[in-house]
Write a structure and sequence with these properties.
Strand content: 15-25%
Number of strands: 7
Largest sheet: 7 strands, antiparallel
Number of helices: 4
Structural class: alpha+beta
Helix content: 25-40%
Shape: elongated
Radius of gyration: 19 Å
Number of domains: 1
Amino acid sequence: MAIIALLSVVIIPRAIQLVEKMTANRIAAELGALRSAANAFQLGTGTFPLRVSHLNNPITAADRNTAQILYLQRHIAQWNGPYTDLDLAANLGSVTARPIGFGASLHNQLICFNPANNQPVTSSPFCRDNSFVALRIAGLLGYQFDLLNLQVDGDESADPGFGRQTGKLRFIATGGIDLAVQTGVTYYLIGPWSAVR
């Protein structure tokens, strides 16, 4: 009985850590693929998409870009997707968010984010020259963010709060004092906003 208790104290926590690390690796790989796809979309069309689903589904004159501006005919003609092999159509068609792991969800809408104050841009013009296009992830706890941040930005600091406001991945706390279980919204910076061409 003592051996079973000892094994459960050692093996179960290690197994949980391994599963969490694998989840963070998978999410980081998916975010990287989405970042590459959004940048390819921008290079091809001249603007960033409003929705993640625009990466796999042809855009129309009724659709908007990240700055909430209707796509122009030249953007539509230059769409050369799909830009990723991730199955976004089935998961993110008109849905606002989809699960990505850790109980968190990836929102379908890309936003503009101001890295100077670590806040999304919420007023018009939605995208400014100093802003970045970003994906929004809701539902990560602080320690889950730190695991993901290690994969995305390589932050190996012993201080779990270090690096939450820098790099490609940003954590904006919305509740809680304990850094490990703090709740918040995570933003994954895709690339700098540039005026629509």
